[in-house]
Task: inverse folding
């Protein structure tokens, strides 16, 4: 364990600067793929992070650092949730145990959480679906956890390969989870809006019968690459 990580353990940061709420909500309208592209193909969590039920959500990150097989800090992070937040849970070492279920979801929802993103397992999936609480996780597992070891809340973490600072924007849907740095959300929202408008125009052309070969002017490059048509 590195000295930096050791210095983070046993810490709860109560006051964090959250990304601009209007821009965060706007990002949610575009979805993870558009936001990922608009940001320069950055910030995407590993593709094993899947929603337990189809969902689309955006919010501001409240982070929690957990240890393998121990969900003690999930109860600690609940106190720091504000309406519009998404809890992002990272692990000090790989684990797929079921850290989260319907009881914690009830607590999170009462605090105004929009979702959970966890690089580990969850359980009570049927109940979570009935509650309409979105979760992205690495695994689903009935295996429970203990409460014995301190982690930390609202420290920078790496979740599923993506760096997440407290207050960053999270955009999650059926395609994946993207992290947008808090300082960059307004710019990325504007870039995503432009990309969405361009895609709407392209979609209309494709629907009218225009081929991607012509819309993207691919024919010359394909010919140069050696593509030959045979009748």
Result:
């Amino acid at each position: 364990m590195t000295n930096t990580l050791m210095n983070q353990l046993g810490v709860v940061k109560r006051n964090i600067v959250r990304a601009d709420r209007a821009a965060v909500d706007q990002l949610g309208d575009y979805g993870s793929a558009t936001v990922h592209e608009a940001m320069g193909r950055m910030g995407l969590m590993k593709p094993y992070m899947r929603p337990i039920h189809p969902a689309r959500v955006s919010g501001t990150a409240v982070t929690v650092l957990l240890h393998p097989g121990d969900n003690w800090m999930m109860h600690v992070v609940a106190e720091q949730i504000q309406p519009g937040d998404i809890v992002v849970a990272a692990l000090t070492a790989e684990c797929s145990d079921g850290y989260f279920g319907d009881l914690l979801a009830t607590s999170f929802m009462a605090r105004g959480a929009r979702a959970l993103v966890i690089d580990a397992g969850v359980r009570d999936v049927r109940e979570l679906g009935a509650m309409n609480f979105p979760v992205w996780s690495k695994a689903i597992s009935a295996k429970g956890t203990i409460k014995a070891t301190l982690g930390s809340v609202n420290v920078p973490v790496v979740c599923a390969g993506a760096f997440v600072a407290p207050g960053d924007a999270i955009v999650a849907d059926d395609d994946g989870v993207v992290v947008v740095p808090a300082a960059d959300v307004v710019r990325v929202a504007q870039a995503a809006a432009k990309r969405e408008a361009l895609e709407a125009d392209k979609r209309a052309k494709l629907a009218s019968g225009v081929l991607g070969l012509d819309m993207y002017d691919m024919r010359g490059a394909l010919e140069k690459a050696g593509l030959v048509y045979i009748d």
Remarks:
- The chain has a mean pLDDT of 95.
- Residues 132 and 183 are 30 Å apart (CA to CA).
- The first helix runs from residue 3 to 8.
